[in-house]
Protein 1
Amino acid sequence: MKFETQGFLHLKEVIPSGVLQNTQVAFDAASQRYYDQWRQSVKVGTGEARFFDIPNILDQGSVFVDLVDLSTIFELLVDIVGQDIQLNHTHARLFYPGPTFTPPWHSDMMSVLGVDHAHTSNFLVKIHYFIEDLRPDQGCLAFIPGSHRYPAKHPTPVIADVEKSPAAVKIVPKAGDAVIFNTHLLHMALDNRSDVVRKSIIYAYSHYWMKHYANSVPTDLERFANTPQRKQLFGVDIEGVPYFNRRLQGNIDQPWHSTLLSASKRLIKRALLRNSTFG
Ligand SMILES: O=C(O)CCC(=O)C(=O)O
Protein backbone atom coordinates (compact mmCIF):
# COMPACT_ATOMS: atom_id res chain seq x y z
CA MET A 1 0.00 0.00 0.00
CA LYS A 2 1.20 3.52 -0.83
CA PHE A 3 0.70 4.56 2.78
CA GLU A 4 3.20 1.91 3.92
CA THR A 5 5.94 3.06 1.56
CA GLN A 6 5.37 6.83 1.47
CA GLY A 7 3.93 7.30 4.96
CA PHE A 8 1.10 9.63 3.87
CA LEU A 9 -1.89 9.94 1.55
CA HIS A 10 -3.68 12.98 0.18
CA LEU A 11 -7.36 12.00 -0.01
CA LYS A 12 -9.42 14.29 -2.18
CA GLU A 13 -13.05 15.32 -1.58
CA VAL A 14 -13.67 12.96 1.32
CA ILE A 15 -15.96 15.33 3.24
CA PRO A 16 -19.41 15.25 1.58
CA SER A 17 -20.57 18.75 0.59
CA GLY A 18 -23.41 18.96 3.16
CA VAL A 19 -21.08 17.93 5.98
CA LEU A 20 -18.45 20.35 4.69
CA GLN A 21 -20.83 23.30 4.80
CA ASN A 22 -21.97 22.43 8.33
CA THR A 23 -18.35 22.02 9.43
CA GLN A 24 -17.36 25.42 8.01
CA VAL A 25 -20.21 27.15 9.86
CA ALA A 26 -19.59 25.26 13.13
CA PHE A 27 -15.82 25.88 12.93
CA ASP A 28 -16.25 29.64 12.51
CA ALA A 29 -18.85 29.82 15.28
CA ALA A 30 -16.60 27.86 17.66
CA SER A 31 -13.54 29.96 16.85
CA GLN A 32 -15.54 33.14 17.51
CA ARG A 33 -16.65 31.79 20.90
CA TYR A 34 -13.06 31.33 22.06
CA TYR A 35 -11.20 34.01 20.08
CA ASP A 36 -11.21 36.68 22.81
CA GLN A 37 -10.10 34.16 25.41
CA TRP A 38 -7.20 33.13 23.16
CA ARG A 39 -6.17 36.77 22.45
CA GLN A 40 -6.22 37.46 26.18
CA SER A 41 -4.01 34.44 26.88
CA VAL A 42 -1.54 35.66 24.24
CA LYS A 43 -1.58 39.12 25.81
CA VAL A 44 -0.72 37.83 29.28
CA GLY A 45 1.91 35.50 27.87
CA THR A 46 0.25 32.15 28.58
CA GLY A 47 -1.08 31.50 25.05
CA GLU A 48 0.62 30.63 21.78
CA ALA A 49 0.54 33.60 19.38
CA ARG A 50 1.23 31.85 16.10
CA PHE A 51 -1.80 29.58 16.12
CA PHE A 52 -5.05 29.14 17.99
CA ASP A 53 -6.50 25.75 18.90
CA ILE A 54 -10.24 25.84 19.62
CA PRO A 55 -10.64 23.92 22.90
CA ASN A 56 -12.46 20.55 23.03
CA ILE A 57 -13.69 20.51 19.45
CA LEU A 58 -15.88 17.44 20.06
CA ASP A 59 -18.05 19.61 22.32
CA GLN A 60 -18.48 22.35 19.70
CA GLY A 61 -21.07 20.67 17.47
CA SER A 62 -22.18 17.21 16.43
CA VAL A 63 -20.57 17.64 13.03
CA PHE A 64 -17.14 17.38 14.65
CA VAL A 65 -18.15 14.06 16.20
CA ASP A 66 -19.36 12.87 12.79
CA LEU A 67 -15.89 13.52 11.36
CA VAL A 68 -14.42 11.05 13.85
CA ASP A 69 -15.79 8.08 11.88
CA LEU A 70 -16.63 9.66 8.55
CA SER A 71 -17.84 6.82 6.32
CA THR A 72 -15.75 7.86 3.31
CA ILE A 73 -12.51 7.43 5.21
CA PHE A 74 -13.13 5.20 8.21
CA GLU A 75 -12.56 1.83 6.53
CA LEU A 76 -9.16 2.98 5.30
CA LEU A 77 -8.31 4.27 8.74
CA VAL A 78 -9.19 0.92 10.32
CA ASP A 79 -7.10 -0.87 7.66
CA ILE A 80 -4.14 1.29 8.62
CA VAL A 81 -4.44 1.42 12.42
CA GLY A 82 -6.22 -1.88 13.09
CA GLN A 83 -9.48 -3.20 14.53
CA ASP A 84 -8.50 -1.97 18.00
CA ILE A 85 -8.61 1.67 16.84
CA GLN A 86 -9.29 4.47 19.32
CA LEU A 87 -9.27 8.23 18.93
CA ASN A 88 -6.16 9.57 20.68
CA HIS A 89 -6.40 13.37 20.50
CA THR A 90 -7.99 16.22 18.56
CA HIS A 91 -7.18 19.79 17.50
CA ALA A 92 -9.14 22.40 15.58
CA ARG A 93 -6.54 24.89 14.50
CA LEU A 94 -6.23 28.38 13.05
CA PHE A 95 -2.71 29.07 11.82
CA TYR A 96 -2.30 32.79 11.26
CA PRO A 97 0.02 34.32 8.64
CA GLY A 98 3.58 34.11 9.88
CA PRO A 99 6.45 31.66 10.29
CA THR A 100 5.72 28.04 11.06
CA PHE A 101 5.28 26.88 14.66
CA THR A 102 6.40 23.30 13.96
CA PRO A 103 10.00 22.12 14.16
CA PRO A 104 11.50 21.50 10.73
CA TRP A 105 11.18 17.88 9.58
CA HIS A 106 10.12 16.23 12.80
CA SER A 107 8.59 12.93 13.84
CA ASP A 108 5.95 13.17 16.59
CA MET A 109 7.28 9.89 17.98
CA MET A 110 10.88 10.78 18.80
CA SER A 111 10.46 10.52 22.57
CA VAL A 112 8.22 7.43 22.56
CA LEU A 113 9.98 4.41 24.02
CA GLY A 114 9.18 0.74 23.53
CA VAL A 115 8.25 0.85 19.84
CA ASP A 116 10.42 0.18 16.79
CA HIS A 117 9.02 3.09 14.82
CA ALA A 118 10.82 2.32 11.57
CA HIS A 119 8.91 -0.96 11.36
CA THR A 120 5.53 0.15 12.70
CA SER A 121 3.44 2.26 10.38
CA ASN A 122 0.23 2.11 12.41
CA PHE A 123 1.20 3.26 15.88
CA LEU A 124 -0.15 6.82 15.81
CA VAL A 125 -1.82 8.06 12.65
CA LYS A 126 -3.10 11.59 12.05
CA ILE A 127 -5.70 13.03 9.76
CA HIS A 128 -5.75 16.71 8.88
CA TYR A 129 -9.13 17.73 7.43
CA PHE A 130 -9.24 20.92 5.37
CA ILE A 131 -12.45 22.91 5.13
CA GLU A 132 -11.22 25.61 2.74
CA ASP A 133 -8.98 25.54 -0.34
CA LEU A 134 -5.41 26.36 0.67
CA ARG A 135 -3.13 28.60 -1.30
CA PRO A 136 0.32 27.13 -1.98
CA ASP A 137 1.86 29.61 0.51
CA GLN A 138 -0.77 29.22 3.24
CA GLY A 139 1.10 27.03 5.74
CA CYS A 140 0.75 23.77 3.83
CA LEU A 141 1.90 20.42 5.19
CA ALA A 142 5.10 18.98 3.74
CA PHE A 143 6.55 15.47 4.05
CA ILE A 144 9.70 13.54 3.27
CA PRO A 145 8.19 10.42 1.71
CA GLY A 146 9.57 7.17 3.11
CA SER A 147 11.39 8.87 6.01
CA HIS A 148 9.34 6.88 8.58
CA ARG A 149 11.56 3.94 7.61
CA TYR A 150 14.83 5.72 8.37
CA PRO A 151 16.89 3.82 10.95
CA ALA A 152 17.15 5.31 14.45
CA LYS A 153 19.65 8.21 14.71
CA HIS A 154 19.44 8.89 10.97
CA PRO A 155 20.51 12.52 10.50
CA THR A 156 17.67 14.98 9.95
CA PRO A 157 17.70 16.11 6.32
CA VAL A 158 18.37 19.77 5.60
CA ILE A 159 16.24 21.06 2.74
CA ALA A 160 16.85 24.62 1.61
CA ASP A 161 13.88 24.92 -0.74
CA VAL A 162 10.96 22.52 -0.41
CA GLU A 163 9.60 23.57 -3.79
CA LYS A 164 12.77 22.52 -5.55
CA SER A 165 13.80 19.48 -3.51
CA PRO A 166 13.06 16.06 -5.04
CA ALA A 167 13.10 14.63 -1.47
CA ALA A 168 10.12 16.61 -0.17
CA VAL A 169 6.45 16.84 -1.08
CA LYS A 170 4.17 19.75 -0.29
CA ILE A 171 0.42 19.16 -0.17
CA VAL A 172 -1.91 21.92 -1.33
CA PRO A 173 -5.37 20.66 -0.31
CA LYS A 174 -8.80 21.81 -1.41
CA ALA A 175 -11.87 22.17 0.80
CA GLY A 176 -13.14 18.70 1.71
CA ASP A 177 -9.73 17.00 1.38
CA ALA A 178 -7.91 15.07 4.08
CA VAL A 179 -4.26 14.26 4.56
CA ILE A 180 -3.49 11.14 6.53
CA PHE A 181 0.00 10.33 7.76
CA ASN A 182 2.09 8.12 9.96
CA THR A 183 3.23 10.51 12.69
CA HIS A 184 6.76 9.08 12.58
CA LEU A 185 7.11 10.34 9.00
CA LEU A 186 9.26 13.48 8.90
CA HIS A 187 6.87 16.36 8.36
CA MET A 188 6.27 20.02 9.08
CA ALA A 189 3.87 22.86 8.45
CA LEU A 190 5.49 25.39 6.12
CA ASP A 191 5.39 29.12 6.83
CA ASN A 192 2.09 30.81 6.21
CA ARG A 193 3.31 33.52 3.84
CA SER A 194 -0.19 34.37 2.65
CA ASP A 195 -2.44 36.93 4.28
CA VAL A 196 -5.10 34.33 5.09
CA VAL A 197 -5.52 32.16 8.19
CA ARG A 198 -5.22 28.39 7.61
CA LYS A 199 -8.01 26.33 9.20
CA SER A 200 -7.69 22.60 9.85
CA ILE A 201 -9.17 19.86 11.98
CA ILE A 202 -6.67 17.30 13.22
CA TYR A 203 -7.67 13.90 14.60
CA ALA A 204 -5.07 11.36 15.77
CA TYR A 205 -5.82 7.65 16.16
CA SER A 206 -4.00 4.85 17.90
CA HIS A 207 -4.82 1.57 19.62
CA TYR A 208 -7.38 0.98 22.36
CA TRP A 209 -4.68 0.11 24.89
CA MET A 210 -2.87 3.42 24.50
CA LYS A 211 -3.66 6.26 26.90
CA HIS A 212 -5.77 8.90 25.16
CA TYR A 213 -6.21 12.62 25.77
CA ALA A 214 -9.29 14.23 27.32
CA ASN A 215 -9.98 16.15 24.10
CA SER A 216 -10.65 12.83 22.32
CA VAL A 217 -13.81 12.23 24.37
CA PRO A 218 -17.01 14.31 23.96
CA THR A 219 -18.48 15.45 27.27
CA ASP A 220 -21.94 14.19 26.32
CA LEU A 221 -20.92 10.54 26.00
CA GLU A 222 -24.46 9.34 26.50
CA ARG A 223 -25.49 11.14 23.31
CA PHE A 224 -22.42 10.52 21.19
CA ALA A 225 -21.10 7.11 22.26
CA ASN A 226 -24.25 5.62 20.76
CA THR A 227 -22.81 2.68 18.79
CA PRO A 228 -20.23 -0.01 19.69
CA GLN A 229 -17.88 1.71 17.19
CA ARG A 230 -18.21 5.11 18.85
CA LYS A 231 -17.83 3.54 22.31
CA GLN A 232 -14.52 2.03 21.26
CA LEU A 233 -13.33 5.23 19.55
CA PHE A 234 -14.09 7.24 22.70
CA GLY A 235 -12.43 4.72 25.02
CA VAL A 236 -15.53 3.48 26.85
CA ASP A 237 -14.46 0.28 28.60
CA ILE A 238 -16.49 -2.92 28.61
CA GLU A 239 -16.37 -4.84 31.86
CA GLY A 240 -14.50 -8.10 31.42
CA VAL A 241 -12.92 -7.17 28.04
CA PRO A 242 -9.18 -6.53 28.39
CA TYR A 243 -7.90 -3.39 26.61
CA PHE A 244 -5.75 -5.54 24.32
CA ASN A 245 -8.81 -7.50 23.16
CA ARG A 246 -11.03 -4.63 22.00
CA ARG A 247 -12.03 -5.07 18.36
CA LEU A 248 -14.61 -3.33 16.17
CA GLN A 249 -15.72 -6.63 14.69
CA GLY A 250 -16.31 -8.43 17.98
CA ASN A 251 -14.00 -8.41 20.96
CA ILE A 252 -11.67 -11.36 21.45
CA ASP A 253 -12.77 -13.97 23.98
CA GLN A 254 -9.98 -14.94 26.28
CA PRO A 255 -10.61 -18.38 27.79
CA TRP A 256 -7.97 -18.08 30.51
CA HIS A 257 -9.50 -14.80 31.56
CA SER A 258 -13.00 -16.23 31.97
CA THR A 259 -11.53 -19.29 33.72
CA LEU A 260 -9.80 -16.91 36.10
CA LEU A 261 -13.02 -14.99 36.61
CA SER A 262 -15.08 -18.08 37.47
CA ALA A 263 -12.26 -19.36 39.69
CA SER A 264 -12.28 -16.13 41.67
CA LYS A 265 -16.08 -16.21 41.89
CA ARG A 266 -15.83 -19.76 43.34
CA LEU A 267 -13.27 -18.55 45.89
CA ILE A 268 -15.50 -15.66 46.99
CA LYS A 269 -18.50 -17.98 47.30
CA ARG A 270 -16.48 -20.43 49.41
CA ALA A 271 -15.23 -17.63 51.69
CA LEU A 272 -18.79 -16.30 52.15
CA LEU A 273 -20.07 -19.78 52.97
CA ARG A 274 -17.29 -20.32 55.53
CA ASN A 275 -18.07 -16.98 57.19
CA SER A 276 -21.77 -17.78 57.47
CA THR A 277 -20.99 -21.26 58.90
CA PHE A 278 -18.41 -20.14 61.50
CA GLY A 279 -19.37 -16.51 62.02
O1 LIG B 1 0.16 21.81 10.54
C1 LIG B 1 -0.07 21.66 11.73
O2 LIG B 1 -1.01 22.21 12.30
C2 LIG B 1 0.80 20.76 12.56
C3 LIG B 1 1.58 19.82 11.75
C4 LIG B 1 2.25 18.78 12.61
O3 LIG B 1 3.41 18.87 12.89
C5 LIG B 1 1.46 17.68 13.14
O4 LIG B 1 0.26 17.57 12.92
O5 LIG B 1 2.08 16.83 13.83
Protein 2
Amino acid sequence: MKQRTPVVINILIIIVLLTIFYYLFVQSYAFLSSPYFWGTVIIAGILAYIQGAIGDLVENNKFKKLSPEEKAAYLAEKKVPYFKRLYNAAFKKQSAAEEKDILIDHGFDGIMELDNQLPKWWVGLFYFGTAFCILYVAAYSFTDFAHPINEYEQEYKEQIAAIEIYSKSQPPVTIETAKYSADNIAEGKELFKTNCASCHKEDGGGGIGPNLTDKYWINQPEKTLFKNVFHMDWNGSPNNPAMRAFGKNGEVSGAEIEKIAAYVYHINQELPPVTEAQGGAAPQGTEAHWEKE
Ligand code: HEC
Protein backbone atom coordinates (compact mmCIF):
# COMPACT_ATOMS: atom_id res chain seq x y z
CA MET A 1 0.00 0.00 0.00
CA LYS A 2 1.27 3.45 -0.90
CA GLN A 3 2.29 6.07 1.67
CA ARG A 4 0.31 9.32 1.53
CA THR A 5 1.62 12.87 1.49
CA PRO A 6 1.23 14.52 4.93
CA VAL A 7 -1.54 17.13 5.18
CA VAL A 8 0.98 19.81 6.21
CA ILE A 9 2.86 19.35 2.94
CA ASN A 10 -0.36 19.62 0.94
CA ILE A 11 -1.29 22.81 2.76
CA LEU A 12 2.18 24.26 2.14
CA ILE A 13 1.92 23.48 -1.58
CA ILE A 14 -1.52 25.14 -1.66
CA ILE A 15 -0.16 28.29 0.02
CA VAL A 16 2.73 28.50 -2.46
CA LEU A 17 0.39 28.04 -5.45
CA LEU A 18 -2.08 30.59 -4.07
CA THR A 19 0.73 33.09 -3.54
CA ILE A 20 1.91 32.69 -7.14
CA PHE A 21 -1.69 32.94 -8.38
CA TYR A 22 -2.42 36.11 -6.41
CA TYR A 23 0.90 37.65 -7.37
CA LEU A 24 0.24 37.12 -11.09
CA PHE A 25 -3.05 38.98 -10.83
CA VAL A 26 -2.26 41.65 -8.24
CA GLN A 27 1.40 42.17 -9.30
CA SER A 28 2.59 43.21 -5.88
CA TYR A 29 2.73 41.56 -2.51
CA ALA A 30 -0.03 43.89 -1.23
CA PHE A 31 -2.44 40.95 -1.22
CA LEU A 32 -0.55 39.50 1.77
CA SER A 33 -2.47 41.92 3.98
CA SER A 34 -5.80 41.28 2.25
CA PRO A 35 -8.51 39.27 4.07
CA TYR A 36 -9.45 37.67 0.71
CA PHE A 37 -6.04 36.05 0.43
CA TRP A 38 -6.08 34.70 3.97
CA GLY A 39 -9.74 33.68 3.54
CA THR A 40 -8.82 31.53 0.52
CA VAL A 41 -5.82 30.13 2.37
CA ILE A 42 -7.98 29.12 5.36
CA ILE A 43 -10.73 27.61 3.19
CA ALA A 44 -8.17 25.71 1.09
CA GLY A 45 -6.45 24.58 4.29
CA ILE A 46 -9.70 23.27 5.76
CA LEU A 47 -10.52 21.43 2.51
CA ALA A 48 -7.03 19.89 2.47
CA TYR A 49 -7.49 18.87 6.09
CA ILE A 50 -10.86 17.23 5.39
CA GLN A 51 -9.37 15.44 2.38
CA GLY A 52 -6.56 14.21 4.65
CA ALA A 53 -9.02 12.97 7.27
CA ILE A 54 -11.04 11.04 4.67
CA GLY A 55 -7.76 9.61 3.34
CA ASP A 56 -6.91 8.41 6.88
CA LEU A 57 -10.23 6.56 7.15
CA VAL A 58 -9.74 4.87 3.78
CA GLU A 59 -6.17 3.99 4.71
CA ASN A 60 -7.25 2.44 8.02
CA ASN A 61 -9.78 0.30 6.21
CA LYS A 62 -7.29 -0.88 3.61
CA PHE A 63 -4.72 -1.56 6.33
CA LYS A 64 -7.06 -4.03 8.04
CA LYS A 65 -7.21 -6.10 4.88
CA LEU A 66 -3.43 -6.44 4.51
CA SER A 67 -1.51 -9.63 5.28
CA PRO A 68 0.75 -9.51 8.40
CA GLU A 69 3.92 -9.17 6.24
CA GLU A 70 2.38 -6.37 4.21
CA LYS A 71 1.33 -4.65 7.43
CA ALA A 72 4.89 -4.88 8.80
CA ALA A 73 6.38 -3.56 5.53
CA TYR A 74 3.88 -0.71 5.47
CA LEU A 75 4.60 0.28 9.09
CA ALA A 76 8.38 0.13 8.51
CA GLU A 77 8.01 2.35 5.44
CA LYS A 78 5.82 4.75 7.37
CA LYS A 79 8.63 5.36 9.89
CA VAL A 80 10.91 6.82 7.18
CA PRO A 81 10.59 10.63 7.30
CA TYR A 82 8.58 12.12 4.44
CA PHE A 83 11.39 13.98 2.70
CA LYS A 84 13.75 11.02 2.90
CA ARG A 85 11.04 8.85 1.35
CA LEU A 86 10.54 11.44 -1.36
CA TYR A 87 14.27 11.54 -2.04
CA ASN A 88 14.49 7.76 -2.18
CA ALA A 89 11.54 7.59 -4.54
CA ALA A 90 12.99 10.27 -6.80
CA PHE A 91 16.36 8.58 -7.21
CA LYS A 92 15.33 4.96 -6.83
CA LYS A 93 17.20 2.36 -8.90
CA GLN A 94 15.47 -0.83 -9.85
CA SER A 95 16.97 -4.11 -8.76
CA ALA A 96 17.58 -6.73 -11.48
CA ALA A 97 14.50 -8.66 -10.31
CA GLU A 98 12.32 -5.59 -10.63
CA GLU A 99 13.73 -4.86 -14.07
CA LYS A 100 12.46 -8.16 -15.35
CA ASP A 101 8.91 -7.12 -14.54
CA ILE A 102 9.12 -3.91 -16.50
CA LEU A 103 11.07 -5.17 -19.48
CA ILE A 104 9.33 -4.29 -22.73
CA ASP A 105 9.44 -7.06 -25.22
CA HIS A 106 11.78 -5.54 -27.75
CA GLY A 107 15.33 -4.39 -27.95
CA PHE A 108 18.10 -3.61 -30.37
CA ASP A 109 21.74 -4.43 -30.31
CA GLY A 110 21.42 -5.86 -26.82
CA ILE A 111 19.82 -2.70 -25.50
CA MET A 112 16.45 -3.43 -23.92
CA GLU A 113 13.72 -0.95 -23.17
CA LEU A 114 12.29 -0.74 -19.66
CA ASP A 115 8.85 0.58 -18.87
CA ASN A 116 10.15 2.81 -16.07
CA GLN A 117 7.87 5.00 -14.07
CA LEU A 118 8.62 8.63 -14.56
CA PRO A 119 10.63 10.06 -11.65
CA LYS A 120 8.43 11.85 -9.15
CA TRP A 121 10.41 15.08 -9.34
CA TRP A 122 9.84 15.07 -13.09
CA VAL A 123 6.10 14.47 -12.77
CA GLY A 124 5.89 17.13 -10.05
CA LEU A 125 7.70 19.64 -12.23
CA PHE A 126 5.44 18.77 -15.15
CA TYR A 127 2.26 19.37 -13.13
CA PHE A 128 3.68 22.58 -11.68
CA GLY A 129 4.67 23.76 -15.15
CA THR A 130 1.23 23.00 -16.55
CA ALA A 131 -0.54 24.80 -13.69
CA PHE A 132 1.83 27.75 -13.95
CA CYS A 133 1.36 27.94 -17.71
CA ILE A 134 -2.45 28.09 -17.37
CA LEU A 135 -2.22 30.76 -14.67
CA TYR A 136 0.35 32.74 -16.63
CA VAL A 137 -1.64 32.72 -19.87
CA ALA A 138 -4.78 33.73 -17.95
CA ALA A 139 -2.95 36.55 -16.16
CA TYR A 140 -1.31 37.67 -19.41
CA SER A 141 -4.64 37.69 -21.25
CA PHE A 142 -6.84 39.36 -18.66
CA THR A 143 -4.52 41.59 -16.62
CA ASP A 144 -1.60 43.94 -17.26
CA PHE A 145 0.82 41.26 -16.13
CA ALA A 146 3.93 40.74 -18.30
CA HIS A 147 2.72 43.08 -21.07
CA PRO A 148 5.78 44.85 -22.44
CA ILE A 149 3.75 47.83 -23.68
CA ASN A 150 1.92 48.33 -20.40
CA GLU A 151 5.11 47.86 -18.42
CA TYR A 152 6.89 50.34 -20.65
CA GLU A 153 4.15 52.93 -20.18
CA GLN A 154 4.13 52.36 -16.44
CA GLU A 155 7.90 52.82 -16.19
CA TYR A 156 7.80 55.81 -18.49
CA LYS A 157 5.23 57.51 -16.25
CA GLU A 158 7.27 56.70 -13.16
CA GLN A 159 10.40 58.16 -14.73
CA ILE A 160 8.64 61.34 -15.83
CA ALA A 161 7.24 61.70 -12.29
CA ALA A 162 10.71 61.12 -10.82
CA ILE A 163 12.23 63.75 -13.13
CA GLU A 164 9.52 66.21 -12.12
CA ILE A 165 10.18 65.62 -8.43
CA TYR A 166 13.90 66.00 -9.06
CA SER A 167 13.59 69.26 -10.98
CA LYS A 168 11.21 70.64 -8.35
CA SER A 169 13.77 69.87 -5.67
CA GLN A 170 16.48 71.68 -7.66
CA PRO A 171 16.75 75.41 -6.91
CA PRO A 172 15.55 77.38 -9.96
CA VAL A 173 18.31 78.93 -12.12
CA THR A 174 18.19 82.73 -11.91
CA ILE A 175 20.35 85.45 -13.43
CA GLU A 176 22.34 85.47 -10.15
CA THR A 177 23.07 81.73 -10.14
CA ALA A 178 23.35 81.12 -13.91
CA LYS A 179 26.86 80.33 -15.14
CA TYR A 180 28.37 79.91 -18.56
CA SER A 181 29.38 76.34 -19.30
CA ALA A 182 30.67 74.99 -22.61
CA ASP A 183 28.79 71.76 -21.83
CA ASN A 184 25.50 73.61 -22.33
CA ILE A 185 26.22 74.84 -25.87
CA ALA A 186 24.88 71.80 -27.72
CA GLU A 187 21.59 71.72 -25.79
CA GLY A 188 21.39 75.50 -25.96
CA LYS A 189 21.65 75.33 -29.74
CA GLU A 190 18.60 73.04 -29.90
CA LEU A 191 16.60 75.28 -27.56
CA PHE A 192 17.63 78.33 -29.60
CA LYS A 193 16.41 76.60 -32.78
CA THR A 194 12.94 76.02 -31.29
CA ASN A 195 12.44 79.29 -29.43
CA CYS A 196 14.56 81.99 -31.02
CA ALA A 197 15.59 81.04 -34.58
CA SER A 198 12.31 82.31 -36.10
CA CYS A 199 13.50 85.90 -35.48
CA HIS A 200 17.25 85.61 -34.91
CA LYS A 201 18.03 82.80 -37.45
CA GLU A 202 19.55 79.51 -36.49
CA ASP A 203 23.12 80.88 -36.67
CA GLY A 204 22.12 84.01 -34.71
CA GLY A 205 22.72 86.20 -37.75
CA GLY A 206 19.41 87.97 -37.18
CA GLY A 207 16.34 88.91 -39.22
CA ILE A 208 13.32 90.31 -37.42
CA GLY A 209 15.52 90.35 -34.33
CA PRO A 210 19.03 91.82 -34.26
CA ASN A 211 22.24 90.03 -35.19
CA LEU A 212 23.45 88.29 -32.02
CA THR A 213 26.89 87.42 -33.41
CA ASP A 214 28.35 90.92 -33.77
CA LYS A 215 29.73 93.47 -31.30
CA TYR A 216 26.78 95.88 -31.59
CA TRP A 217 23.95 95.66 -29.08
CA ILE A 218 20.78 97.74 -28.64
CA ASN A 219 20.16 96.52 -25.13
CA GLN A 220 23.04 96.37 -22.68
CA PRO A 221 21.46 96.11 -19.23
CA GLU A 222 24.21 93.81 -17.87
CA LYS A 223 28.00 94.10 -17.80
CA THR A 224 28.84 90.66 -19.14
CA LEU A 225 27.59 89.15 -22.39
CA PHE A 226 26.30 85.94 -20.82
CA LYS A 227 24.25 87.77 -18.18
CA ASN A 228 23.04 90.25 -20.80
CA VAL A 229 21.57 87.47 -22.94
CA PHE A 230 20.05 85.88 -19.83
CA HIS A 231 18.54 89.24 -18.86
CA MET A 232 17.04 89.84 -22.32
CA ASP A 233 15.64 86.33 -22.61
CA TRP A 234 14.14 86.51 -19.12
CA ASN A 235 12.76 90.07 -19.21
CA GLY A 236 12.31 90.77 -22.92
CA SER A 237 13.01 94.12 -24.51
CA PRO A 238 11.62 97.25 -22.84
CA ASN A 239 11.36 98.95 -26.25
CA ASN A 240 10.18 96.26 -28.63
CA PRO A 241 7.39 93.85 -27.61
CA ALA A 242 8.46 91.42 -30.38
CA MET A 243 11.31 90.40 -28.07
CA ARG A 244 9.02 89.12 -25.33
CA ALA A 245 9.85 88.08 -21.76
CA PHE A 246 10.33 84.33 -22.42
CA GLY A 247 11.48 83.59 -18.88
CA LYS A 248 8.94 85.71 -17.01
CA ASN A 249 6.13 84.37 -19.20
CA GLY A 250 7.13 80.85 -18.29
CA GLU A 251 7.82 79.89 -21.94
CA VAL A 252 11.35 78.75 -21.09
CA SER A 253 12.75 77.90 -17.65
CA GLY A 254 15.77 79.47 -16.01
CA ALA A 255 17.73 76.27 -16.60
CA GLU A 256 16.89 76.43 -20.31
CA ILE A 257 17.86 80.11 -20.57
CA GLU A 258 21.20 79.22 -18.97
CA LYS A 259 21.79 76.85 -21.90
CA ILE A 260 20.49 79.24 -24.57
CA ALA A 261 22.72 82.02 -23.20
CA ALA A 262 25.72 79.67 -23.36
CA TYR A 263 24.96 79.07 -27.05
CA VAL A 264 24.59 82.79 -27.79
CA TYR A 265 27.85 83.47 -25.90
CA HIS A 266 29.53 80.76 -27.98
CA ILE A 267 28.38 82.12 -31.38
CA ASN A 268 29.23 85.69 -30.33
CA GLN A 269 32.62 85.14 -28.73
CA GLU A 270 34.00 81.94 -30.16
CA LEU A 271 32.77 82.00 -33.76
CA PRO A 272 33.32 84.74 -36.35
CA PRO A 273 30.32 87.11 -36.69
CA VAL A 274 27.75 86.43 -39.42
CA THR A 275 28.30 89.36 -41.75
CA GLU A 276 25.73 91.05 -43.96
CA ALA A 277 27.35 89.33 -46.95
CA GLN A 278 26.60 85.99 -45.29
CA GLY A 279 22.94 86.92 -44.79
CA GLY A 280 23.31 88.44 -41.34
CA ALA A 281 21.44 91.54 -40.23
CA ALA A 282 23.24 94.91 -40.22
CA PRO A 283 24.72 95.98 -36.90
CA GLN A 284 22.25 97.75 -34.57
CA GLY A 285 22.88 99.69 -31.38
CA THR A 286 26.28 100.61 -30.05
CA GLU A 287 29.48 98.68 -29.75
CA ALA A 288 29.52 96.73 -26.50
CA HIS A 289 32.56 96.30 -24.28
CA TRP A 290 31.72 93.23 -22.23
CA GLU A 291 33.49 92.48 -19.03
CA LYS A 292 35.02 89.00 -18.65
CA GLU A 293 32.65 86.34 -17.22
C1 HEC B 1 9.23 87.25 -32.34
C2 HEC B 1 10.60 87.51 -32.67
C3 HEC B 1 11.65 87.19 -31.63
C4 HEC B 1 11.87 86.02 -30.99
C5 HEC B 1 11.10 84.72 -31.14
C6 HEC B 1 13.03 86.23 -30.18
N1 HEC B 1 13.49 87.48 -30.30
FE1 HEC B 1 15.11 88.26 -29.39
N2 HEC B 1 14.73 90.05 -30.20
C7 HEC B 1 13.71 90.32 -31.09
C8 HEC B 1 13.74 91.72 -31.41
C9 HEC B 1 12.80 92.41 -32.36
C10 HEC B 1 14.77 92.26 -30.65
C11 HEC B 1 15.21 93.73 -30.62
C12 HEC B 1 14.64 94.32 -29.33
C13 HEC B 1 14.87 95.81 -29.21
O1 HEC B 1 14.91 96.49 -30.24
O2 HEC B 1 15.04 96.22 -28.05
C14 HEC B 1 15.38 91.19 -29.94
C15 HEC B 1 16.46 91.32 -29.09
C16 HEC B 1 17.11 90.30 -28.48
C17 HEC B 1 18.35 90.43 -27.72
C18 HEC B 1 19.09 91.71 -27.49
C19 HEC B 1 19.82 92.10 -28.74
C20 HEC B 1 20.23 93.55 -28.76
O3 HEC B 1 20.99 93.89 -29.66
O4 HEC B 1 19.81 94.27 -27.84
C21 HEC B 1 18.70 89.21 -27.31
C22 HEC B 1 19.90 88.81 -26.49
C23 HEC B 1 17.67 88.32 -27.78
N3 HEC B 1 16.74 88.99 -28.50
C24 HEC B 1 17.67 86.96 -27.52
C25 HEC B 1 16.62 86.16 -27.88
C26 HEC B 1 16.55 84.77 -27.46
C27 HEC B 1 17.58 84.04 -26.62
C28 HEC B 1 15.39 84.30 -27.96
C29 HEC B 1 14.81 82.91 -27.78
C30 HEC B 1 14.48 82.54 -26.44
C31 HEC B 1 14.75 85.36 -28.70
N4 HEC B 1 15.52 86.46 -28.61
C32 HEC B 1 13.57 85.21 -29.38
C33 HEC B 1 12.82 89.42 -31.63
C34 HEC B 1 12.66 88.12 -31.18
